[in-house]
TrEMBL record:
The organism's place on the tree of life at top rank: Bacteria
SUPFAM superfamilies documented for this protein: ADC-like
Enzyme class: lyase
Keyword Lyase carried by entry: yes
Protein name: Aspartate 1-decarboxylase
GO biological process: alanine biosynthetic process; pantothenate biosynthetic process
Gene Ontology cellular component terms for the protein in this record: cytosol
Source organism per UniProt: Salmonella enterica subsp. enterica serovar Daytona
Keywords from the UniProt entry: Autocatalytic cleavage, Cytoplasm, Decarboxylase, Lyase, Pantothenate biosynthesis, Pyruvate, Schiff base, Zymogen
GO molecular function list: aspartate 1-decarboxylase activity
The EC number(s) this enzyme carries: 4.1.1.11
UniProt signal peptide: none
Length: 44
């Protein structure tokens, strides 16, 4: 099952971690997500 967690582009964001052996892996700084008020919940 594929679940879309984030839809859109993030411009000029600093990637804080990535796993080179996993396609699409990246970590975004928690302060940035807090500024966006991103809760991780889906809104349809």
């Amino acid at each position: 099952m594929i679940r879309t967690m984030l839809q859109g582009k993030l411009h000029r964001v600093k990637v804080t971690q990535a796993d080179l052996h996993y396609e699409g892996s990246c970590a975004i700084d928690q302060d940035f997500l807090d500024a966006l008020r991103y809760s991780g919940k889906r809104s349809d």
